[in-house]
Amino acid sequence: MTPSLAALAPRLPAPLQEAADERFTRRGLRLLLKRDDLIHPALPGNKWRKLAPNLRAATEGGQRTLLTFGGAYSNHLRATAAAGRLLGLATIGIVRGDELADRPLNDSLAHCRTQGMRLHFTARAEYRRRADPGYAAELRERFGDFFLIPEGGSNALAVRGCAALGAELHGHADVAALACGTGGTLAGLAADGPRVIGFPVLKGGFLHAEVERLQREAFGGPRGDWSLEDRFHCGGYARTTPELTEFAADFEQRHGLTLDRVYVAKMLYGLTTLAEEGAFPAGTTLAAVITG
Question: How many helices (H) and strands (E) does the chain have?
Answer without folding.
Answer: 11, 10
